């Protein structure tokens, strides 16, 4: 199924924020795990994505659901529930806390791989049948403050092609 892409231009003054879209996509993926999710971004902060203080997301977040859920938490939940998670970013001090939390949350059954690529500049989040791409890094400023252009699409062939391209670029050559 192909749905026309939706382009959003976000900034601190508008009601449009990328974090709510990212949250929705990752929670939807968690509700029906499988396939691969790729996060590709030079800069990644461990942003808070889900406020579960009222228990609204308990049914998705497991037996001991957290009150707050960061990006790393959601990616680890996906990687432990049947979705292969791949992260491509730079080995930079700004990304260290996010990468450390991913490493600490893994065990032998976690299907999560991290690829460090010092020349990565692409910014995307792709899953089975959906994708985000644009100017936005996955940081606090990128998701909620900066003026960004993000395109979201439910285009199964395009998402599948992006995943094949990423597999070829990073898993085939073992960056």
The number of helices is 6
How much helical structure, as a percent, in the residues? Answer: 25-40%
Proportion of residues in β-strands:
25-35%
Q: What is the first-to-last residue Cα distance?
A: 33 Å
* Helix/strand order: EHEEHEHEHEEEHEH
Structural class: alpha+beta
Task: From the structure above, extract its key features.
28% strand; 175 residues; 7-stranded mixed sheet; globular
Explain what this protein looks like in three dimensions.
With 175 residues, the chain is an alpha+beta fold. The strands form two sheets. The protein has a seven-stranded mixed beta sheet with strand order 1-9-8-7-2-5-6, sandwiched between helices. It has six helices and nine strands. Helix 4 links the parallel strand 5 (84-89) and strand 6.
């Amino acid at each position: 199924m192909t749905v026309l892409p939706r382009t959003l231009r976000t900034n601190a003054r508008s009601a449009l924020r990328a974090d709510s879209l990212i949250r929705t996509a990752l929670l939807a993926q968690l509700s029906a795990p499988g396939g691969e999710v790729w996060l590709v971004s030079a800069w990644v902060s461990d942003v808070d994505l889900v406020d579960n203080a009222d228990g609204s997301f308990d049914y998705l977040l497991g037996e001991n659901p957290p009150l707050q859920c960061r990006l790393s938490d959601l990616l680890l939940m996906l990687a432990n529930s049947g979705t292969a998670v791949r992260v491509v970013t730079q080995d930079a001090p700004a990304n260290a806390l996010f990468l450390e939390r991913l490493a600490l949350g893994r065990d032998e059954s976690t299907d999560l791989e991290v690829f460090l690529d010092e020349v990565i500049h692409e910014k995307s989040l792709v899953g089975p049948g959906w994708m985000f791409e644009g100017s936005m890094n996955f940081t606090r400023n990128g998701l909620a403050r900066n003026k960004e252009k993000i395109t979201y699409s439910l285009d199964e062939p395009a998402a599948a092609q992006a995943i094949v391209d990423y597999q070829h670029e990073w898993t085939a050559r073992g960056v």
